[in-house]
Each structure stands twice: as structure tokens, then as C-alpha cells.
């Protein structure tokens, strides 16, 4: 049965905890064994496929715990389908995504979840799971939370922003947190004071401040920090854990750090756009700034140093993309003359692993921390570890052969996301994905896509593994 076995020889295996030169044996879609090259252990290994990883890194496939494929927003839809989006993820070395199913107001959670299953089923090139967006907290949806947790949908996203669309008030948030404290679910929070922001939007538009850069100016860092603080206090009252998504501002990060210093089960994620882009991009002329409209918004460049520090000190545990692409032509352009009508979101699912490796090259992160924030921590946070996020016997054989010396220039002309621009156009990066296996199957083979729609499987999740 050697045909179901794959042997990766000669690479440097990097996980969140170790860096070892080792040969990796894959059997029936799982990691079967690791052995030091030249040791007696690996001598008898045979396989139908042998991959030479000499001079390369052998790393776990990335886990992107925050994507929005086919998301309806502002009268349009995110431009990546589950087909195009998961293929692009694979090109970027990500082998698992956790996407957000959306509950419509007045409808059951189950109805929203089933709609997302239908979108994804048979279309994904890599494995996938779901969080649940709750846009209507009622007695019936609170009961549904218990059932979803039992089924492996163990995290629920609430919004303090977007009044009239996704917004929940403090009472609704408290009720959902209380329910999560009993059923083991994890509340994910979009922490921005949407009520106050809407006032500032109205005032800006009335004063004819309509350009994309005003999107960043009205969504003030202080209103992200205030909402983060409020979410933490509500979680304390409910005795519930809290995960704050897309942290962008130094002041919001300080709220998380204070809570964590008290030993509270409070977690935070940031995204590559906040680490590498800034309000300078939002201010690009000729409406080009619209390409960079997302919420939370890009911040002045000085916030970046605080976010990098937060990643090093573990006040931020995860880097996800919040991948939510809209084409500049015909979609972002909906907001010409009114920044509030620009669809919110950036493309990035293909760029995350490479951008974070660039941070390793520049000395901002260690190699093991790169794997921790991109693979292991998201897998643990959302109940996928050790099946995902590591290279160890018994884990799924989601493995990336990564060339740390290859050089590339990021461009919309060469990326695989279904969007007409790159947020990182022209950026030079050292390091590139060479080969990707998903559950032992070659998806990218030496920079050739060999995967297929439908290979990706839905993956039920356990509860957050940081909560004992």
C-alpha cells in the first residue's frame, strides 16, 4: 500500500514548539512518523511519492480563522467564492479556513448555517469550518447556540458596529455571553462603537468630507478601544471568554493587555493589513484609497509597532486575514462620492503566510512564533488542534514545503484571488510556498495547482482549547 504513503525528506520541520531536521512520513492522509535523517528509524521507510525538501522549511498548513467567502455586504457580494477563495488560500500555504455563516435578522441560526453549507459543499479545495454570526439575539437563537456547539460550530460573532445590520446592544451581548459561559462557546466580538461612528459618518458627509480617507477618520481608534473595554467588562459579568477580532489600534490592544494581565480569558487577533498598511493607503488619490476600506479601519503607521509588540508578548494570539474581497471596478466604486457606501473588506487569504514570513526575515518574529500565530494558535483557539496546526504523528497531513530564500513580488497579475487588485501590489517578499499537501493529497505541486474542488472537507470543531 505504498501508494498511499508520501515521504518528505531533508527539510527543516518548524512547529510552534520545535525546529528539527526530520524526515516526515505520511500515510492515509495523516502524519505517521517523524525521524531524524540518517537515523535508523527512517531507513526502512518506503513511499509511492518522495518529496525532497532539502534547504526548505516543512511547516503545518496555515489555519485562517477569519474569512468571508461570498459574503453579502452593502448591496453586493464578496468576490471570492468558496471555490476561488480556497484555491487562493492553498496557493498561499493555508490549508484550513474558518468562514462566517450569517444569520439573517428574524431568521433561525440554523437557516443561515445551512445556507453556508450549501455555498461551500463540493466547492472547496481545502478543509473548512464555520463560525456563526448572530445578528439577532432572541430566546430562540440563544437556545440554538447550545445545539450548534454540540454539532461543532463552537464560536459566535457579535457586532458592536453596523446598527441596523449586524448590531447587537449591550443587553443582547450580555445574554449571548451568559449562554456561551454555560455551553462552552466562544464569543467573537467586532468591537467598535457603531452608534457613535454613525453620528460621525453623518457629520462628515454633511460637511462634504466624502473621500475614502474619511472612513478611517470617523471610525476612531478611541471608539475601538471603548468598545473593546466594554466587551471585556460584559464578558467579566457573564463569566465568559472573549475573542476580539481584527484589533487595529494601540489603545484597543492596551485594553486586552490589561485584561490578560488580570488573568482573564480574553484573546485578540490582528490581521496583515494592520501590520503592513496604514492610513497613508486610505489617503491615496483618485479614489484609490477605496481599495483599503475595511472595518476596523487602517490606522496611522505608528500603531504598527504596538501590534508587532503585542504579537511578541502574546497579548495578541492569532493573525487571520478577515479576507473579504470586493473588486475595485464596479464594487468599491459604489462609494464614489460617499465613503460610507464603499463595501468594507480587503483581499488577503493568499498573502498571510508570506507576509508573516517576511516579518521573520525582518526580525520582527521568530520562525516558531510565525507558525504559532498562523497555524497552531488559531487551531487551538477554535478547537481544531492537534488535527490541524502542527506536524506530529496523528495530525492531518496538511503540510507546506516553504522555500525561505525564493523572492517574489506581490501583484494582482499573479495572485489567484478573484479580485482585480492587490492590497500589497509591488511589495517584495523573501519566501514562497512551493508545495502544499491537504490531508496527504498534493494541492500545489512545485508551484502547479493540482488540487480539485470538493477535496476540502467540512471539519466540526471542539470548544476553545485555551480554556481548561
Low-confidence runs (pLDDT<50, min 5 residues)? none
Tell me the number of strands: 18
Assembly type of the shown chains? single chain
* Amount of beta strand: 15-25%
Radius of gyration: 21 Å
The coarse overall form would be: globular
- Through-space gap between termini: 40 Å
Content-based structural category: alpha/beta
The largest sheet is: 8 strands, mixed
Proportion in helices: 25-40%
Number of helical stretches of at least 4 residues: 14
User: If you average the pLDDT, what whole number results?
Assistant: 97
Topology:
Elements: E1 5-14, E2 19-27, E3 30-35, H1 40-43, E4 49-52, E5 57-60, E6 62-67, E7 72-73, E8 76-77, H2 82-91, E9 94-102, H3 109-120, E10 127-133, H4 139-151, E11 155-159, H5 170-183, E12 186-190, H6 194-206, H7 213-218, H8 221-238, E13 242-244, H9 250-261, E14 266-270, H10 272-276, H11 279-282, H12 303-313, E15 318-319, H13 352-361, H14 367-381, E16 399-409, E17 428-438, E18 441-444
Parallel strand pairs: 1-4, 1-5, 6-9, 9-10, 10-11, 11-12, 12-13, 13-14, 14-15
Antiparallel strand pairs: 1-2, 2-3, 5-16, 7-8, 16-17, 17-18
Helix pairs in contact: 4-5, 5-8, 8-9
